[in-house]
Specification:
With 290 residues, the protein is mainly alpha-helical. Helices cover 60% and strands 0% of the residues. It is built from 14 helices and no strands. The N terminus is likely disordered.
Length: 290
């Protein structure tokens, strides 16, 4: 008498054996996500923990994870733009936009914390501060805010310094966009497309002229026009995230100095004047006023 045996799960074609080996023991939801590790990372410093200490830790850890994913998506988009694969890059931009909306929404949760709640545990933060987030710095670097001075706060960690130095030396997302315009026939000088990537790009009249030609005849350059608008979407959401950050900090500590030696709200407000894509703002002025 024969019997049917259960079919063994087949390994996907071209699946590296190392990946299959690594997957052993990671078959349940908890194991796959390593929840035993993840959910034990919210170590509070008070015993018993203060009421909003866990809130503060969770919000910032989740934000760091979103920043990690955001940087990954931006890196993929930059690579695809360098290969003239705009449809694929725009898909990553859509995901970045969704991530940004999640980051913005996090401030709503943090805003449920009152000044009195924060004072219960603020003293244990010591010299730690949000401006020490190297994940955030990677996002700023790939978007073009190339400020090498921020690396100094990580000098005690050579691996992080090396990673930030490498990111600083790479072309930003917008640098790759400008090189794309040059490949499409728009006249951009070498000072724009072959410059020192470690320096921030402050805009260039030749780039503005290229965008003007695109914006004045969008149907003839639809993919580039759409690309520019997606860049502006990211810029505006980043500005909203910064503004909500300022508002959340001001709500809790007012204009007192922040932890880690920062000036608090005053330090954060300076970031509101930053622009990743200055040429795209200048195009608006030229389109309206000639």
């Amino acid at each position: 008498m024969t019997h049917e045996s259960k079919p063994r799960p087949s390994r996907p074609r071209n699946q590296p054996q190392a990946v299959v080996a690594a997957a052993k023991g990671r078959e349940t939801y908890s194991d796959f996500l390593q929840l035993d590790v993840l959910l034990n990372l919210q170590a509070t410093l008070h015993d018993p923990p203060q009421r909003d200490e866990l809130l503060f830790i969770v919000i910032h850890q989740v934000s760091e994870l979103w920043l990690k994913l955001m940087h990954h998506e931006l890196s993929e988009a930059r690579r695809e733009i360098a290969r003239d694969e705009l449809p694929q890059a725009l898909k990553h931009f859509a995901r970045v936009k969704a991530i940004q909306e999640q980051l913005i929404a996090a401030w709503k949760v943090l805003n449920t914390m009152t000044p009195a709640d924060y004072l219960e545990f603020r003293h244990v933060l010591g010299t730690s501060s949000g401006f020490q987030s190297w994940g955030y710095r990677l996002v700023e670097y790939i978007l073009g805010n190339k400020d090498a001075t921020y690396i100094n706060v990580h000098r005690r960690d050579p691996k992080i310094v090396a990673r930030l130095e490498a990111a600083l030396a790479e072309p930003s997302l917008y640098d790759e966009v400008l090189r794309l315009l040059a490949r499409r026939g728009f006249k951009l000088p070498a000072t724009v497309v072959k410059r020192d990537w470690r320096k921030p790009f402050a805009g260039h009249k030749a780039a503005v002229e290229a965008w003007l030609a695109i914006y004045r005849r969008p149907r003839d350059h639809w993919d580039l026009y759409d690309l520019a608008e997606k860049l502006m979407d990211m810029e505006m959401l980043f500005q909203r995230w910064r503004f909500d950050h300022v508002s959340a900090v001001e709500r809790v500590i007012g204009h007192q100095p922040g932890t880690g030696g920062s000036s608090g709200v005053a330090f954060l407000k300076k970031a509101l004047d930053l622009r990743f894509f200055p040429d795209l703002y200048e195009v608006r002025n030229r389109l309206i006023y000639g």
